[in-house]
Amino acid sequence: MTEQSLHRRRFLLGGAAVGAGALLTACTSNEAPAQNNAANVANAGANSQPGTPVTIGFSAPAADHGWMAAITKNARAQAQKFSEVTLNATEGTNDVNQQISQVETLINAKVNVLVILPFDGKALTAVGQQAMDAGIQVINLDRVFDTPLAYRTWIGGDNYRMGVNAGNYIAQQMKAKNIASPVIGEVAGIDSLPLTQERSKGFKDALTRQGFTVGPRVAAEFTPESGEKQTSNLLQSASKLDALWNHDDDQGVGVIAAINNANRKNFLMVGGAGSKNAMNLIKSDAEPLKATVLYSPSMASSAISLARLLGQGKGAGDFAEHEIPAEITTYSAVVTKENVDKYMDVGFDS
Question: Where is each Periplasmic binding protein domain found (predicted)?
């Protein structure tokens, strides 16, 4: 989960839960553009139809984390939906030099488009730029390269808004329960990472705006083991707790285990990322977990759809612009018992 985070992601889409089936209905719509809307590009109706054959190279870190495993799984599944797409995927690795070598192999194979989720954005920047210089368009997925010269389009999640939406949901619930001065805890990810810092900042900013503050806080390591250990420490130090935000549903398996071991269920909990396990718990309404804030690996499906369109020289069908945007930030929707069925299709195994 290490990454260099993009500071300005100006292009927001309306749902992180873009399913494994498509980038947007916009990209694959079968409906013809309205006759009286000259701004609509003419390729809208053709995008879902098979087009020019496209070979897409794909490179990502090792699938040693539920979210990361879902990234590769979603990419492969999406590529299979298009008869004209050939996916040339490398074996996932957390060795920076090996990933660079794998991408260079894809460049030498002259794939049409590259989709790269770098283990380390800074370290993979040069090879991304090498691909662009060779005329191969690059979709930079989530962990951003150091310069836009290394990619044609960036698509990824919004860490700051994850925190904001988690904070807003908790604040609303506290006000609904008439809790004037709630004790709100936080189980963060690895504190040295920009993504963790952004999530925590968004959480703090949202609570501050609502007149609340962040209480006891610990940092885990995006693993169930670290989540259980750090949550146990937090619960021991906080005799009273009204709400808790856990940044990551994979480490959330351990967080919930610690809560159950301590028999502490008299508070509400919000998760992060959107695992299938978390969604099932939310749906059952039997645990403190009442919501999770999406950071969906379905972005990999969208990246493959984008790569296909770029390889075929198409734009996003319902957009007036003729070209695929340079930046796409998915939205961190809040999944609750009321809407969980809508988002189950993008839940991943934790």
Answer: 56-314
Residues 155, 117: Cα–Cα separation, whole Å: 10
Cβ proximity of 47 and 314 under 8 Å: yes
Pairing of strands 153-156, 113-116: unpaired
Query: What's the CA gap between 186 and 204, in Å, rounded?
Result: 10
Q: Taking the model in full, what pTM does it have?
A: 0.84
Q: Which strands, in side-by-side order, build the sheet including 334-336? A: 217-219, 184-188, 243-246, 268-273, 289-294, 334-336
> Residue for token digits 């998915």?
330
Q: Is residue 153 within 8 Å of 325, Cβ to Cβ? A: yes
Q: Which residues of 231-240 are buried (b: 16+ CB within 10 A; e: fewer)?
A: bbebbeebee
Residue spans per domain, the chain:
25-156+298-326, 159-294
25-156+298-326 matches 159-294 in fold: yes
Which DSSP letter does residue 328 get?
E
CATH architecture group of domain 25-156+298-326:
3-Layer(aba) Sandwich (3.40)
- Token digits for 8? 């300005």
Tell me how far apart the alpha carbons of residues 133 and 298 are, in angstroms, rounded to a whole number.
Answer: 28
Which residues is 184 bridged to in the sheet? 243
For 70, the enclosing helix (H) or strand (E) is helix 66-80
**Coil/strand/helix, residue 155:** strand
CATH topology of domain 159-294: Rossmann fold (3.40.50)
**Segments of the chain scoring below 50 in pLDDT:** 1-45
- 224 Cβ neighbours under 8 A, 6+ residues apart: 250, 251, 252, 253, 254, 257
| Phi, psi angles (nearest 5°) of residue 220 | -105, -160
Strands 289-294 and 334-336: antiparallel
Q: What is the pLDDT of residues 281-307, one digit of tens each?
A: 999 998 899 999 999 999 999 999 999
